[in-house]
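User: Hello! My lab partner asked me to get a predicted holo structure for this protein. The small molecule is magnesium ion, SMILES included with the sequence. Please write out the structure tokens.
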Amino acid sequence: MSQNQIPALADLVSGARIVALPLRTKFRGLEEREVLLFEGPNGWAEWSPFVEYPDEEAAVWLAAAIDFAHGNLPTLYRDRIAVNATLPAVAPEHIERVLSNFGEFATVKIKVAEAGQNIGDDIARIRRVLELYPDSKIRLDANGGFEISEAVDLINQLKSLGINIEYFEQPVASIAEMAELKLQVNRLGIKIAADESVRKVSDPLAVAQANAADILILKAAPLGGIVRALEIAAEAELPVVVSSALDSSVGLSMGAYLAAAIPNLDFDCGLATSALLAGDVTREPLRAENGFIDVRRVEVDKSKLEIFSAQDHRQDWWLERLERVYKLL
Ligand SMILES: O=C(O)CCC(=O)c1ccccc1C(=O)O
Ligand SMILES: [Mg+2]
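Assistant: Hello! Below are the structure tokens for the protein in complex with magnesium ion.
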């Protein structure tokens, strides 16, 4: 981004709106999602690095948000995006309720490898989803939580149950483990997708160069924005899936623009997560309808900002974080 497209810090601070959105279901251990919103010439943008992220990482998310509010927008190839339902690592008895918020969908991403759970819990979750939605495609996401042997164990157990998966997202943590696991399971017809190995490493292309993934998950915010994410997609020469980070509809709109700007998009995208929120910042949320979300900007609603306004000390925390992180741009 060129310097002249970066707004002054004082303008960012005075225009910042900070909300704490309630979740319907705990996700990543969270019951509320804090996000900072601001408006630029293009419209609203969201800055919402998770609170534990260090400033250097949060700065990449800020560059992405500023670019979406102030920068040039890409050429778009489509005006709606096919999306998957996202199922947190809930117990089987909660699955029907959680998935009912997503409307119709063809694909479910199921979280596995949750701390404190075991592979039996994962299998039970997967089987319950297929009981409720026998025709849905299933993908798994372990957030790097498995050892290689555990991932292989889960894959083999699913095989013996006759359950096919579309792909397995970040089953293990490191690129070296991803490469080794991919070798083992590609033989069984299982594809490996990289998420953290793209967005939480110094070189987002390293996992592709190491032949350690079949698919890349691309998230606009942690990659520094739509332009950078598109470059990665073009250079990696792998199929990509655009996903999000439990954003408000404003953050999801950036994901929708990125997904719309990818020339070849063959998988459903992880952009239906507004269904996990019990509140949003707009009267017209980017909600999946019949398995698609629109590609459009989102208008923020003043009364929603008030209803979900974060507590004073959290506002202060975010504004101080913004001032520190801005200096890193
Ligand atoms: O990809 C999806 O289906 C939704 C987004 C998602 O799973 C997610 C949301 C917040 C933080 C991390 C992740 C993740 O993909 O690991
Ligand atoms: Mg993931």
